[in-house]
Write a structure and sequence with these properties.
This protein is globular. Helix content is about 35%, strand content about 30%. The chain contains nine helices and 15 strands.
Length: about 325
């Protein structure tokens, strides 16, 4: 129990994911309060702070990091800025929740992890879906043997934002593209479900000249040990989907809203086994709030990190391989 104490959060930037999801999640959490927000756009940050009832608005990220009352920061900046501001936050003594994708390369990710280790602060990647109890339940079902031996996993995450020409996701130098933005989800989910690291990746991508030559659609095969394959697709220029299927020798599990779902909606997945099927339903719960609570309890030493910072490095290694495969049209082996 946290006995009423609160982790005081500072938000580095006014990104949509922060305003629409993470800030409301922290406010709904048992452990957190949003104490400050920063942006280089003074008018925007003041308006955002007023709208979301955040006590302090800073017109620079540096000013927020200099605030000794802030315990932790959430970084939803464009991908190419994750490394710089994670390291600067760590050097300022702040714990860091960094939005996915964690970095632009595994090498960057390793630098971030080392900086936070050196500073003695907690670092986590903001994959909120992993904190929802349905994933623990899915792992229980798999461990029970109900669906047999896993033969394959298929994940999808697609949407159509192709008309938003000023979107930061359409700039290669800023870490744009579908693989970085949403392909990271099925990659992360397969690693989490299997408790294994992949050995190779092969990816086909559509790079759009209309969108800064970033990958607007990618389809891939990621090879895991024991001859298990993750097939996945991700897109920013396709009809919307957000699913995960785990296929076993005796059955399968299907998640219709695998990664993103409204906090007000029940979470459902279906288990198909031995000619029968059932739905398992979870009451509406805010997975961003659960993420904030897990983070705070780790900071306070009440629990071990559910996902170590090194997990983010491992996910970036697969993203590196997927991007290389897509760009060079080759199968890329991952190092042991």
């Amino acid at each position: 129990m946290n006995n009423g104490k609160k982790l005081r959060w500072g938000i580095v930037g006014c990104a949509g994911i922060a305003i629409g999801s993470v800030i409301p999640g922290i406010k709904q959490s048992q452990t957190g309060e949003v104490a400050a927000i920063a942006s280089r756009d003074e008018e925007k940050v003041k308006a955002t702070a007023e709208k979301l009832d955040i006590p302090v608005a800073y017109s620079s990220y540096e000013a927020l990091l200099a605030d000794d009352s802030i315990d932790a920061v959430y970084i939803p900046l464009p991908n190419h800025l994750h490394k710089e501001w994670t390291i600067r936050a760590a050097e300022a003594g702040k714990h860091v929740l960094c939005e996915k994708p964690f970095a632009l390369t595994a090498e960057e990710a390793e630098e971030m992890v080392e900086a936070c280790r050196k500073a003695g602060v907690h670092l986590a990647e903001a994959f909120m879906y992993r904190h929802h109890p349905r994933y623990d339940r899915i792992k229980e079902i798999i461990a029970s043997g109900e669906i047999g031996t896993i033969r394959g996993i298929h994940g999808t995450f697609t949407f159509n934002s192709s008309g938003a020409k000023e979107n930061v996701r359409f700039h290669r130098h800023m870490g744009g593209g579908a693989l970085y933005d949403i392909g990271c989800y099925p990659l992360s989910a397969a690693r989490y479900i299997l408790d294994k690291e992949p050995v190779a990746a092969t990816v086909q991508a559509f790079f759009s000249p209309q969108h800064g030559d970033v990958d607007m659609m990618a389809s891939g095969l990621v090879e895991f040990p024991d001859s298990i394959g993750l097939t996945f697709d991700c897109a920013m220029w396709a009809a919307g989907r957000n699913t995960l299927e785990i296929l076993g020798t005796e059955g399968r599990i299907h998640l219709p809203s695998a990664f993103v779902s409204a906090p007000s909606q029940s979470a459902v997945f279906t288990v198909f086994s031995k000619g029968e099927q059932r739905e398992e339903t979870f009451e509406p719960i805010n997975q961003y709030a659960l993420q904030a609570d897990d983070f705070a309890r780790t900071v306070w030493g009440e629990q071990q990190p559910r996902f170590a910072p090194e997990d983010a490095v491992s996910n970036m290694k697969i993203l590196d391989a997927c991007l290389l495969s897509a760009e060079q049209r080759i199968r890329v082996k991952l190092e042991e």
